[in-house]
Amino acid sequence: MGATRRTLLTSPGAAAACGLVGAHDSPAAAGSGEPAADPVAPVVDPIALGPATDIPVGGGKVYSTAMAVVTQPVAGDFKAFTSTCTHWGCQVTEVENDQIICRCHGSRFSANGSVVLGPATLPLGPKAVTVKDGQITLG
Ligand code: FES
Q1: Taking the CB of residue 69, how many other CB atoms lie within 10 A of it?
Q2: Which of 41, 67, 100, 118 could be joined to 109 by an S-S link, Cβ 3.0–4.6 Å?
Q3: Which domain, by its residues, includes 1?
């Protein structure tokens, strides 16, 4: 006779076969006291973007290879966002007249990342940014 539904649902082999055993079931998480590394969280190294003088007050600059846009809404206050548009996921390509522009369908975002013009309805996702010794670092 084959396995019953109960034996399939309760046997460890069945759980592994079904992909139900995750990172938190790993030996590190199961009793060593050491936290297991989260295999889902991306490791993001800081990325040097260049001089802060590249970012005009009230405007910004798109760093396409870093998939980020950095703005300076007011003097000395730098912000960074993902360059992925919240509408359908195109990359914003430029900052023009102090607005971050997605050319796919015309969405525009302010230097604070908020939507100025749809069809996007959600702000750009924030990213960590620091400015030290006049140099911008993402992450
Ligand atoms: Fe940006 Fe549609 S993906 S406006």
Answers
A1: 29
A2: 100
A3: 1-41
Q: Is 120 in the pocket of ligand 1 (CB under 6 A)?
A: yes
Give 3-state DSSP helix, strand, coil % of the chain, rounded to 5: 15, 30, 55
For ligand 1, mutation pick of 87, 91, 116, 121 (most atoms within 8 Å of CB): 87
Where residue 78 sits, what CATH number does that domain have?
Answer: 2.102.10.10
Report the pLDDT value the prediction gives residue 22, as an integer from 0 to 100: 36
| Same domain membership, residue 93 and residue 56 | yes
Q: Convert the pLDDT of each residue in 14-27 to its tens digit.
A: 333 333 333 333 33
- Whether 26 and 59 share a structural domain: no
**What's the full length of the chain, in residues?**
139
Q: Is the CB of 55 under 6 A from ligand 1?
A: no
pTM over 0.70: no
On the question of pLDDT at 5 being above 60, the answer is no
Over residues 81-86, mean pLDDT: 96
Q: How far apart are CA 39 and CA 68, in angstroms?
A: 23
Average pLDDT of 76-98? 95
